[in-house]
Design a protein that fits this description.
- The complex is a heterodimer of chains A (about 300) and B (about 140).
- With about 300 residues, chain A is α/β, with parallel strands linked by helices.
- Chain A contains 6 helices and 6 strands.
- Chain A has a 5-stranded mixed β-sheet.
- In chain A, strand 1, helix 2 (about 90-110) and strand 2 form a beta-alpha-beta unit.
- Chain A is elongated and about 115 Å long.
- The model of chain A is unreliable at about 200-210 (pLDDT under 50).
- With about 140 residues, chain B is α+β, with helices and mostly antiparallel strands.
- In chain B, strands 1, 2, 3, 4, 5, 6, 7 and 8 form an 8-stranded mixed β-sheet that branches.
- The chains are: A alpha/beta (about 300), B alpha+beta (about 140).
- Strand 6 (about 215) of chain A pairs parallel with strand 5 of chain B.
């Protein structure tokens, strides 16, 4: 026979935990909305850059830039893994670290000089636990990374790439697809491969209006030279934004299921508690009735 | 220009300043001055379509007698019809530019050793940026 008081205590502590998880769910929801707003505010720049590139290349300009061409031999590579500073967000950090470690092993096997960079406390300790010491760590990227912070990193990568200290840069991050779908994405950001071109812009919009003849100051080539680094920076910034949004979603989902689980547990414990209480009352009654019977 | 005529609208220019983070400014303007890479560049209404590279300097927007000043950190400008889109990494009101920080940046840019074409270019860029900031800050405080 379980002790009703013990059951009641357990139920109480689960209620308290439920309160916490519920609050965390609400906080994550609020943060997610904020992060989402930031991410959608950032798409304006991307779409304008895309249009600019379309207008540039519309004049039959060859896109040719050192950042777009892969190097003949890759001597130095960098891997940047974006994780969260906090836990309690389901498989978010675990999945990222797993993919990060896989890619890191691949890189170290084929490329002589590799540099591991990890953002987020969880990722830092995860990599250390698995025996990989990151060369650089960042934990100042919270749920609203600013462009200035990312720009600092991006500028350093670009400078390293241009001066030949870096031949390749991979980024592991949680890509935001829809609210219901985020997945780990391993992307090679340097060399860029190809510029985002008009294919991504809405077709009908491009066809509908007559393309004005632009005057380029100083020249289309020179502008293109600046567009390529800018689009790299934006791409990297988008990784950070996606990661921030995905983290909040992951936490929201994890805390929602924790709250639901607590509800289930409370229900089950309540049932057990009531049964135990009733059982005790019944046995006490039986004692009394039995005693009366014996006296007769 | 014949191709431009269809897109020429009446009324003032529309000026849109966009950074990777957000749309900083969307306003009507009578006249504006852009900091192009090699000097200032004025845009009045009915300007021909143009794409230009921006430098580090001051963006001035005049609308209804009011003058707004911004610091613009490189980027691009696209003039199409009567819409002027400015894409830049950073845009902030001229009064918020930190002159002391810019001077420190200039100093560190000078001290940074540069060997080879690429590093020299990087240094040049840092110097130009710091000088642009100092210039804008001085004008704002004057």
């Amino acid at each position: 026979m379980p002790n009703p008081r013990e059951l009641d205590n357990r139920r109480k502590s689960i209620r308290n935990i439920r309160k916490i998880t519920r609050t965390m769910e609400l906080i994550a929801t609020a943060r997610f909305k904020k992060a989402m707003d930031r991410a959608s505010a950032a798409t304006e720049y991307t779409s304008r850059i895309t249009r600019l590139v379309a207008d540039l290349t519309g004049g039959g300009l060859e896109v040719d830039h050192p950042l777009l061409e892969p190097r003949e031999s890759t001597q130095a590579a960098g891997l940047l893994v974006l994780t969260a500073n906090r836990g309690l967000c389901g498989g978010f950090n675990g999945n990222l670290i797993r993919s990060g470690v896989d890619r890191w092993k691949e890189l170290t096997e084929s490329i002589p000089e590799c540099k591991l960079e990890v953002s987020g406390k969880r990722g830092i300790s995860g990599f250390k636990f698995r025996g990989f010491e990151p060369a650089e760590t960042y934990n100042h990227f919270e749920d609203s990374p600013t462009f200035d912070e990312v720009n600092e990193l991006a500028t350093r990568y670009l400078d390293d790439y241009v001066t030949g200290k870096l031949d390749r840069l991979d980024v592991v991050y949680m890509k935001f697809e829809t609210i219901a779908r985020q997945k780990v994405s391993v992307e090679t950001l340097l060399p860029l491969g190809a510029l985002a071109t008009a294919d991504e812009a809405p077709e009908e919009e491009a066809a509908g209006k007559v393309n004005p003849l632009y005057e380029f100051v100083p020249s289309a080539e020179s502008i293109l030279e600046e567009v390529v680094p800018a689009s790299f920076k934006v791409k990297l910034f988008k990784c950070f934004l996606d990661s921030a949004v995905s983290e909040q979603i992951a936490r929201m989902v994890a805390m929602k299921s924790a709250t639901e689980n607590a509800d289930d547990l409370i229900k089950r414990l309540s049932m057990q508690y009531n049964r135990a209480r009733q059982g005790r009352i019944t046995s006490e009654l039986m004692d009394v009735i039995g005693g009366v019977e014996a006296l007769n | 220009m014949s191709t431009g005529e269809s897109s020429v609208a009446q009324g003032p220019l529309t000026c849109v300043v966009v950074t990777p983070e957000m749309t900083v400014l969307e306003t009507k303007a009578d006249f504006l001055v852009l900091p192009l890479f090699d000097g200032e560049f004025g845009v009045d209404r009915h300007h021909s379509p143009m794409i230009g590279r921006l430098g580090f300097g001051e963006l001035r927007i005049r609308s209804e007698g009011q003058l707004q000043r911004f610091y613009v950190d490189g980027g691009f400008v696209q003039v199409a019809g009567d819409v002027v889109s400015i894409l830049t990494d950073r845009a902030l009101p001229a009064s918020e530019v930190d002159q002391a920080a810019a001077e420190a940046q200039l100093q560190s840019a000078f001290e940074q050793p540069a060997s080879g074409q690429e590093q020299l270019a990087i240094r040049e860029r840092n110097i130009a940026r710091a000088r642009g900031q100092i210039r804008v800050a001085q004008r704002a405080s004057a």
